User: What shape does this take?
Amino acid sequence: MAAEKEERDGVPLTNLDQELFPGAGATKRDLVDYLDAVRDSIVPVLRDRPLSVVRVLRGQDKFMQKNLPKYTPDWVPRTKVWAEASHREVLYALCNDRRTLLWFANQRAVEYHPTLMTVADVHHPTHLIMDLDPPEGGAFGLAVAAARLVRRALADAGLDGAVKTSGSKGLHVFVPLDGAATEDVAAATRAVAARAERLDPELATTAFIREDRHGKVFLDATRSGGASVVAAYSPRVRPGVPVSFPLSWDDLDDVTPADFTVHTAPALLAGRDPWAAGMPAPQKLDAGLVAEGHTIPVARVAAMHEGKRRARARRAEG
Assistant: This one.
């Protein structure tokens, strides 16, 4: 067992030859090696952003960790954020360097979910994000077609975005912003989704309630405000340990999410950072997009009211 113990950048690494999680097809060493290999690309997208991670401990189900545990070393950067939903302060990590990234890897932190804002400016999201979720069993090509609808809707509003796999079965479109907008970002995201849906309502839907989607790609416009989203280059807790991988718009038809894993991604990157290279310059939100978005109900709230209405109707029928 002693041979398993190593140290990198002053971080002791343990149990490296254990399977990462059942069905992973990868060991903890594979996770550490991957994150170390892509550190110059993943740390910039995590830096100075309150970080949630998904950990998988031996014999346990995966769980999302927001609050730093008490045993966290003093040298791990951190910040306190007030959580309105739970009415408490949360002590988040800031993964600003290789040493912190390696410490998280040794904690079996597989997924990395930074917030949309930096600690320097917690009120202004840095990106507008559209999460494209294909139906259960739906081909990746459906998500690709929906992403192109989103791109057209953005272009019509004078905006441009970068695209990446989610590391699961869908895609994420990121539009970098100029830092001027606050709650208008959430409104604009709703409007982009609505416009993309109107371009092809047989393919895409903004229906938040799953049973209302009818086999269409869900245009999830809820990634705003205090939300987080899985980072580019982050592994996912999925068989084979796929990673969220940047793509060019021209390559979407030629790939599948399973092409990009902790085993394959470093060689595909070859020291490049396509996420940074392919990200457009920061942009100003279109006023018409914002105005339309403010007329669209917040999806979670509307879904909650609709759920209650349906429950009342079922009770009345019974």
